[in-house]
Amino acid sequence: MAAEPVAPAAQRLLDAWERDDYAAMHAELTPEAREEYPLKRFERIYTDAAEAATTDVITVDEVREGDDTALAPVSIATHAFGNLRGELALPIADGQVAWTPNLVYPGLAPEERLSRRTRAPQRAPILAADRTPLAEGSAAARTLDAAAVAVVGETGTPTRAQARKLASLGFPPGSLTGTSGLELAWNERLSGQPGGQLVAVSTEAESEVGGGRVLASSQPVPGEPVRTTIDPALQRAAVTALGSLFGGVAVLDTQSGDVLALSGVAYSAPQPPGSTFKVITTTGALDAGIVSLEDEFPVESSNSEIGREIANSHDAPCGGTFAQTFANSCNTVFAPLGAELGGEKLVATSELFGFNSPPALFDADATAVIEPPQSTIPEDLSSSVEVGESAIGQGQVLATPLQLATISQTIANRGVRLPTPIARTAELRPDAEPVEVTSKETAATVRDLMVGVVENGTGVAAALPGVQVAGKTGTAELGPAALAPGEALGAGEEAPQELDAWFTSFAPANDPRLAVAVMVVDAAGDGGEIAAPIAREVLAAGLGTG
Hints:
Blueprint: H1 8-18, H2 22-26, H3 31-36, H4 39-53, E1 55-60, E2 64-65, E3 69-78, E4 83-93, E5 96-97, E6 112-119, E7 126-127, E8 133-136, E9 143-144, H5 149-152, E10 155-156, H6 160-169, E11 177-178, H7 181-185, H8 187-191, E12 195-202, E13 213-218, E14 226-227, H9 232-242, E15 247-253, E16 259-264, H10 278-288, E17 296-300, E18 302-303, E19 310-311, E20 318-321, H11 322-327, H12 331-341, H13 343-352, H14 364-370, H15 384-391, H16 401-412, E21 416-417, E22 435-436, H17 440-456, E23 470-480, E24 497-507, E25 514-520, H18 527-543
Parallel strand pairs: 7-14
Antiparallel strand pairs: 1-3, 2-3, 3-4, 4-5, 6-12, 7-8, 8-9, 10-11, 12-13, 15-16, 15-25, 17-20, 18-19, 21-22, 23-24, 24-25
Helix pairs in contact: 9-18, 10-12, 10-13, 10-17, 12-15
């Protein structure tokens, strides 16, 4: 039978230490110790020691009896110095612990405190899919591939919270850190593990450089590289095609879902997607059996079937067969069609395509760090006006180019939506499964409709010689554009609309390889004029055609 501890107070204090319960620890001290070291000071002494040692976990073995002491073997798992072991001798007086500050660590002498001297390891590179570096070198002198800056992000001065985290891991003061993009998402992996010396510093050695008694030492461990799915040639093409325009371009592998390129704000600034959303409305309507390719629709420039007037772009007359209305993007058809489908089914279809969920770019830890915004649709579309507006990508619907590329990837992949990882390193990929959004038959029908957009509809500017492109344009109206200083409207003249221009696509249509989506914010024209040519340029680079 195990012997009773010399003092239950010592056992209770050590048990509380294992769970970081400083109030419970403090309660086991003698009255004199509690008076000299009030709880806040007592806790601060322990937390300072834990930070110096980079303590992760405290484990205390069975307490033994000594001469007026409780002897406790202690294991301390640290981030920077490995697993440390020693024995604490806790003095006991009148059944309580006569505590002094040197008891925060085994072997500390009176008047000694813990300190450390550490150095940062070599930061690891971020690599493209072909293993060429997108970012390499130290955090202070990172060499970046200019085309990949928006993807890899930057290193720099940490925030206060980041600085506290770095200190807890053992990094020396002044260390830099990842501040955005992949540098931030996988900062801990890229940063490696600092090394150096854990020392006991006495009052006499306080001012001596390198002074103190060395308790433990370690070597820095370099960071681990992150290999991404980025294709350098496509990344350059996406950045070049977008140029100085504010917006984003996302490129996916249609068969794997892997992210091949991201430029601009490809996943970080959701905007109303306009008529690109009609791909979702069409999918839902076909699956619900409320529309077919044989259906005919009246040619009109506007109607009020959803409860308010909906007009076509530029107030143009639009109608004909369902294929023609899709190719020419007739709001007068798709707003009522959405209302007929109903809010519940429209939202359900949208969510199958990935709306109202975080994008599947990163593993769970990196997703929590980056918090990439969701593409969203209101879950409760209670009126026909709200449903009709949402069905044409207006109202409160918001999306990113990454989400729109995912829509094209899903149609290209016979109705199955894939995760969109940006890392080839296995443990950094998202924990997400493929989602069957629609049937192969519906996906094939939508594909053919998207081909019609590029061959004889609003997306002809995306056509490529010798390659059949499937696409859908979108132009979101955000409200009246601000007038220039001194500019005034004439009598009866309306202010021009501020526009976002969109295009989502995949190619070759019958053997898809690439899905490309483009968004241009505050565009000088509609999606067919502004976004489609950008997608064409990226597709041409990826498919090796002009």
